Amino acid sequence: MESYNIHFPIELSSHIYLPDENAILISLKFSGGFESVPLLFRTLKKAGKIVSSFFILDGLEDEAKMGCFITLDKGIKPEDVLKELRGLKFVLEAKVSTFKLDSLAFDTLHFPLLTCGERCVVLTLEGLKAVSLGLRERFGSAGEFLLYEMGIRYGEYDAINFAKKYGLSGLTAVRAILAEAVGRGWCYPRIVEFDEKRLEGVLVVRDLFECLPYKGSQTSISHFFRGYLCGIFSYLFSRDFTIREKECVGKGDSECIFTVTPRVE
Amino acid sequence: MTVKLNIVLRRYIKDHESILSEGDSLKKRFSSKEKEGILKSIREKGLKEFTPSIGCDRRVSYPQAKEVFGRSEEILNQLVEENILEKFMIRCVPTCPKDNSILESKLMCPRCGSADIEKKLLIQDPLSRGLRLVSRDQLVNQNVDVKGAFFECRGCGNRFPSPLIKFYCVQCNMEYRLEDVDLMKMSGYRVLEKAVETGKEVEELKTVIREVMEEKGFSLENSMVEGKSGVKHSFDLYFRKVVDGKEHSIGVDIVVRRDKVSLEDLLPSLIKSHDINSYMIVVVMPLSDFSCKQLCLLEKNIFLIEGKNVEEIKKSLEKLTF
């Protein structure tokens, strides 16, 4: 049903590790849209090398924002760069952070992190693995159930959010929420079949954040995402669902495959 | 410059990715079930100690641990934290500062540095009472009085009381002086009797519970049960009986501790009870703390059975009606 065409990954650098380099973080607000970008880059390049991915938070129509880590060439001081940037007509605001610990430069200028206007946080796959591993080790199957319950609440929240914000319902809302999962970096899900009368379907999920770090496991790993799907379907179709993970990358399958069926008590 | 930066970045990303495979080095905590399984293995194999041995890769390993748990030192240290084992020092061994492997020693002539040296024994002739140096294979009379030992260099003929000791690494072929080597403590692990006793009590309880439940008409089933969530839960014991066509099932979790059973010990059972359709009996020995009792009372499908010993638990179980 769905087919996305992934182009490239996005790197969001909260810090950068550059030994023996004078790395600084620059944050800019500027006007003039795309036309201002080449001159901006030329100015930055005069000071050094742009080493991390930059990001532009707003559209480029009127006021745009960007941030980047650059390593300064020898003899260039952060205040020189700042002066140069502030001298540009279209630069509305320029800030520099030189906060460093050892060879690590941190992004301490951009906060909070937003996605579609909502505040969000970044949790790495390995960090999440540590959390889920801890729950599994400490509580066994009860830990897996806790992950599942957490997933349900998150799924319900997303379903409510999409229904209220955009008036979406039923399968369209499911498809929208799953498409959102790509942009969130969760996974690359596809609904391969869904019978709207029987409310039964199959989802194929690639690179699922929950299962990916567990490669080499003996069993299916996804409990949070199963719960998440259950929360979405249960809210949008007003009945309980059973989600099973038939195949899992954690146990060596190429993709995770989930079946969706209404729950029979 | 850009190339250099790219290398640094790539290396950084690579280092970061490598954490994925090291995830297992996170501090492991065992669930009650895992602990019981470990104690059972230790008990069944009659293990008292895990002693180290040096493998051909010149690293310390614990063959018994590998045989029982499939893992070596890592799990033994975790079991120390779980109060199942205690660690004790055996000796210090020299290790390579470069690759951490255990070093071989090399005896050399202090004058010319040759490793071609021979050990000679200083003996007193029983007849002449004179002293002379002989090699061990020249020693015919074993009852001869050995007064000491000398070393002789086959290269330069030097005789010396103690050779120069150097160390070499068979992994990286490096040679080290004593002052340059690292020292590693080689430890053994002793099984704590009290911990094993706890495991024995769990087994005893299992037998008693089974007897009582079978008297009540239940039959023992596969202890792996799928919850409403689809998560597969395991119980120490799982019973089923059918009365008037209606099925009754009960999962039993056993928690035995040396002191009081804490809420943390009971949490897995409490959480599981929310996901299963059956009743649960949580058998606790010796006693649970107050917060456990309060929480169990809130759950409709949990029976908390406590007792200072197996006999007390048996009596409480017999009183239960289903």
Labels describing this entry:
heterodimer, A: 265 residues, alpha+beta, Alpha-Beta Plaits, Muramoyl-pentapeptide Carboxypeptidase, domain 2, 2 domains, 5-stranded antiparallel sheet, 4-stranded antiparallel sheet, 34% helix, B: 322 residues, Trna Endonuclease, Chain: A, domain 1, 3 domains, 5-stranded mixed sheet, 8 helices, 19 strands, 32% strand, disordered N terminus
What does this structure look like?
The complex is a heterodimer of chains A (265) and B (322). Chain A folds into two domains: 15-111, Alpha-Beta Plaits, CATH 3.30.70; 125-262, Trafficking protein particle complex subunit 3 (Muramoyl-pentapeptide Carboxypeptidase, domain 2). Helix content of chain A is 34%, strand content 27%. Chain A has helices at residues 36-47, 78-86, 125-139, 141-166, 170-183, 224-237, and strands spanning 15-17, 23-31, 48-50, 55-56, 63-72, 91-97, 100-101, 104-106, 114-115, 118-119, 188-195, 200-206, 241-247, 256-262. In chain A, the strands form four sheets. In chain A, strands 2, 3, 4, 5 and 6 form a five-stranded antiparallel beta sheet that branches. With 322 residues, chain B is α+β, with helices and mostly antiparallel strands. Helices cover 31% and strands 32% of the residues of chain B. Chain B has eight helices and 19 strands. A five-stranded mixed beta sheet of chain B has the order 13-16-17-18-19, sandwiched between helices. In chain B, α2 crosses α5. The longest helix of chain B is centred in the middle third of the chain and has 23 residues, at 193-215. Residues 1-25 of chain B have low confidence and may be disordered. Chain A binds chain B through residues 16-19, 21, 49, 51, 71, 125-126, 129-130, 133-134, 137-146, 148-149, 213, 223, 226-227, 230, 242-244, 263, and chain B through 1-2, 5, 8-9, 12, 19-20, 23, 26, 28-34, 227-234, 267-272, 274-275.
